[in-house]
Amino acid sequence: MRLSRTTTATALAVLALGGAVAATTPAAAATAAPKAATAPPAPAAAVYNGACGTGYQVVGSTPVGNSGAVFVTWNQSTGKNCAVTVRTTTGAKIRMSVRLEAVGTGTAPVEDSGLYTSYAGPVYVAARGHCVKWSGTIGAASGGDTGHCG
How far apart are CA 60 and CA 20, in angstroms? Predict the structure, then answer.
């Protein structure tokens, strides 16, 4: 059995509107695609807030659970890295921290920790010619990484 153009066009129009058409022939089955499942919305991603200042470019970031991210920035002219932990959404004060270290320099890591509503930091290290190690916490969630060698 062959479908007419009108029947096929009607079936496609119904599908486009979210309806369902029973596939009674191979031709109809080929044109009747199943309706895609709707995925739940993804959590909003933390966005770098510019806290490190002018001249700093984001060179890396690491998620802190589902609560936010640690952003690492680099300033080519000063040879410094900066890090800041940013919450996805501002809220009541919560324990937050950010830590940054220039690996192999012998200098102590720098850290900012406290009760904050939106971000911890910024913290800075001179790291020209060295890699940096960074981490952050938001409540019970934590994240960190090593990289960006400037």
Answer: 46
Amino acid (one-letter) located at 132:
V
pLDDT, tens only, 112-127: 999 999 999 999 999 9
Long-range contacts of 2-5 (CB under 8 A, 24+ apart): 2/27, 3/27, 3/28
Nearest to 68 by CA among 134, 119, 132: 119
Domains annotated on the chain, with CATH: 1-37 (no CATH), 57-149 (2.60.40.10)
Nearest to 148 by CA among 52, 55, 85, 74: 74
73: its two tokens:
């920035």
Q: Average the pLDDT over 49-53 and give the result.
A: 96
Name the nearest CA neighbour of 122 among 56, 66, 44, 78: 56
What does pTM read for this prediction? 0.71
d(CA 131, CA 104): 8
